[in-house]
Amino acid sequence: MDWQTSEDTVPSAPVTEADARQLLGRPPATGAWRDGDPAGDRRFAGFGSFRTEGGRELPAYRLAYETWGELNATRDNAVLVLHALTGDSHVRGPAGAGHPTSGWWDDIVGPGGPIDTDRWFVVAPNMLGGCQGSTGPASIAPDGYEWATRFPYLTIRDQVAAQVRLADALGIDVWAGVVGGSMGGMHALEWAVAHPERVERLGVLSAPPVNTADQIALNSVQLEAIRIDPRFLAGEYYDSPDGDGPTRGLALARRMALLNYRSPTELNQRFQRTWQSGVSPLGHGGRFAVESYLDFHGNKFTRRFDANSYITLVEAMNSHDVGRDRGGIEDALARVTAQTLVLGIDSDRLFPIDGQHRIARGIRRTLDGERSVVLASDFGHDGFLIETHAVGAHLRRLFES
User: Fold this and answer.
1) Fewer CB within 10 Å, N- or C-terminus of the chain?
2) Residue 317, SS3?
């Protein structure tokens, strides 16, 4: 559950005038990718009816995905890379038509990289329920209107089941590797637990075995921030003109989330008590630099994401529990047969390192025994996106194993 775009994952810094100019003009009611927008590097795979764990049915759905490298003749060099809550399929490549941001893991995936596209065929889908090309609340339902809040409740297992169909459509019986961070790590872990025969290598980065009450509580206030925005209109905001969508609620949810993604050390060191301008925030109408920073990134987020989709994906994340109906977490983890890398960040206050250690203890074949790799970083949860040199070194170990 992280920032997941290169622009957002650079070390925190005060907002400049050039930054502010990026947000001129009113934000759209939704930042979702819509049919008719430039496809960019996306590919699309369509599927028939899909029944969720909760018994709801989508009459059809689509997954947007991107690929790099070439699938070999034996179809055994495919790697699945799974994005986090607010990410998408654009793992690498520049921003441009159809892609509001540049690739979020350019330093990891590519020719000669830790996940070397000269060797591996990399597939990155936008998860079901997302808003960057895959079917989600902003998509058009059979009656010709957006699904909005009528979109079915999804679980992590539902989203993986949708990805299984994509693998089948691509003719990939076994993934040489499945790698994900944060919410993508939940998907990766679910793949290895539910379909152990289809995963040879597993990378779980900064993800827990179960979403705890504390994490659900943090999520709940973000969702309420969206729902109480008067312009949310019970989810029926898609026909609203620019500037009249639920952007204040979505931006506030994003600001709340950002506080979980970074560490107190980084924020304190970067901003201290500096002012955003020469106007004092001590009763004279000015702002502290950290306040402007959170505002900027919250407002920027509304231009590339959809409020209903945010709710759908956060609720899916809340469903995460690999032990549900499997005899508990340890019994579920014992199903994993893949060679596994488990990695966490010592300053992660969203998914603390004890969760990664529990995953490592429960899986039989890990690179580092019963302890997760622990990266020392001031960047908190987002360290798995920012500390690419260290993360890449461990992923090289996994893919050379």
Assistant:
1) C
2) helix
Cα–Cα distance, 109 to 103 (Å, whole number): 10
Q: At what angle do helices 213-227 and 247-261 cross, to 10 degrees?
A: 160
DSSP reduced 3-state for 160: helix
Q: Tokens standing for 372?
A: 């997760």
Q: What is the pLDDT of residues 129-180, one digit of tens each?
A: 999 999 999 999 999 999 999 999 999 999 999 999 999 999 999 999 999 9
277 catalytic? Reply is no
Report CA-CA distances (Å) from 324 to 164, 187, 328, 329: 20, 15, 6, 8
SS3 285: coil
Phi first, then psi: give them for residue 252, nearest 5 degrees: -65, -40
pLDDT tens-place string over residues 370-384 = 999 999 999 899 999
Catalytic residue among 83, 99, 187, 381: 381
Q: Pick from 178, 47, 202: which is nearest to 124 by CA?
A: 178
Q: Which of 6, 12, 89, 182 is catalytic?
A: 182
- Is the Cβ–Cβ distance between 329 and 322 less than 8 Å? yes
Residue type, 144: G
Provide the residue count of the chain. Answer: 401
Residue 43, Cβ density class (10 Å: 0-12 exposed, 13-18 middle, ≥19 buried): middle
- Give 190-216 as a 3 state SS string: HHHHHCHHHECEEEEECCCCECCHHHH
Q: For residues 336 and 305, what is the distance between their CA atoms, to the nearest angstrom? A: 34
Pairing of strands 61-68, 43-47: antiparallel
Q: Which of 306, 348, 378, 382 is catalytic?
A: 348
Residue 49 CB neighbours (<10 A): 9
Residue written as token pair 């998907």: 187
Q: Which residues contact 256 (CB under 8 A, 6 or more apart)?
A: 218, 221, 222, 225
Catalytic residue check, 195? no
| Residue 394 annotated to the active site | no
